[in-house]
Write a structure and sequence with these properties.
The protein is of the alpha/beta class and about 230 residues long. The protein has a single domain, classed as Rossmann fold (3-Layer(aba) Sandwich). About 40% of the residues lie in helices and about 20% in strands. The protein is built from nine helices and eight strands. The protein has helices at about 15-30, 50-60, 65-70, 85-90, 95-105, 130-140, 150-165, 185-200, 215-225; strands spanning about 5-10, 35-40, 40-45, 75, 110-120, 140-145, 170-175, 205-210. Strands 2-5-1-6-7-8 form a six-stranded parallel beta sheet, sandwiched between helices. Strands 3-4 form a two-stranded parallel sheet. Helix 1 runs parallel beside helix 2, helix 1 (about 15-30) packs across helix 9 and helix 7 runs parallel beside helix 8 (about 185-200). It is globular and about 45 Å long. The two termini are about 15 Å apart.
């Protein structure tokens, strides 16, 4: 039986997708779900994806054979830019079927594939397709990572509306509490996001806090409805 695929995206770059993905994988693996993480593409490196390495460190395991052979991150580019530009600067282009084939190979070996995007939902992967369009076409649901930082309300609501307009299922929202934030802003931002999920008809999508010690396995399972 093929494993499921759930994407992890964020409201912006540097929002904590990799940390959230790693902690989700750790919690679910601890609950007995055979879980692997994957990255669509990574820029600004040469070699094995740094984000995949972060996932493995949080999961408490070493790099896997599917990491070493590039299955978990089919595209890496040296220039730290949007994937479409980083690829073009090397005379290359991201072929989304290559990513899909790699994901399918992982699905045959694992119960769950957590597929981390690059940047936010509307980041171009090539000259024709945004990450959100890729998720729509593949039929993958998404966990959206946000945070209490100033501006998160606007970016979160725009991301939710981008999912609604494309028919992408929002499986849940991770509220990344890593770092120092104004407590009043943090609590108000969380309340606004929670109300917005209800307003958009997503009341079944849990809003789960991510703290320094990660997720409780029960919360992680509820987040992904496993």
């Amino acid at each position: 039986m093929k494993g499921r695929v759930i994407a992890v995206s964020g409201i912006d770059t540097g929002i904590g997708k990799s940390v959230a993905t790693g902690h989700l994988a750790r919690a679910l693996a601890g609950a007995g779900v055979r879980t692997i993480t994957q990255k669509v593409a990574q820029t600004g490196i040469d070699g094995i994806s740094e984000d995949i390495a972060v996932h493995r460190e949080i999961m408490g395991i070493g790099l896997q054979d599917v990491d070493l052979d590039g299955t978990t991150c089919p595209y890496v580019f040296r220039h730290p830019a949007s994937p479409h530009l980083a690829a073009a600067m090397e005379g290359r282009e991201i072929d989304l079927m290559t990513v899909r084939r790699a994901t399918f190979m992982l699905q045959k070996r694992y119960d769950l594939v957590l597929l981390e995007g690059a940047g936010g939902l509307l980041v171009p992967l090539n000259g024709e397709l945004l990450f959100a369009d890729f998720l729509r076409d593949a039929g993958y649901g998404v966990v959206l990572v946000t945070s209490p930082r100033l501006g998160s309300i606007n970016h979160t609501l725009l991301s939710l509306e981008a999912c609604i307009s494309r028919g992408i299922q929002v499986r849940g929202v991770v509220y990344n509490r890593f770092g120092e934030f104004d407590s009043a802003i943090a609590e108000d931002t969380r309340r606004v996001i929670e109300r917005s999920l209800t307003h958009y008809g997503m009341s079944g999508a849990p809003l789960v806090d991510l703290r320094a010690d990660g997720f409780d396995p029960v919360d992680a399972a509820a987040l992904l409805n496993i």
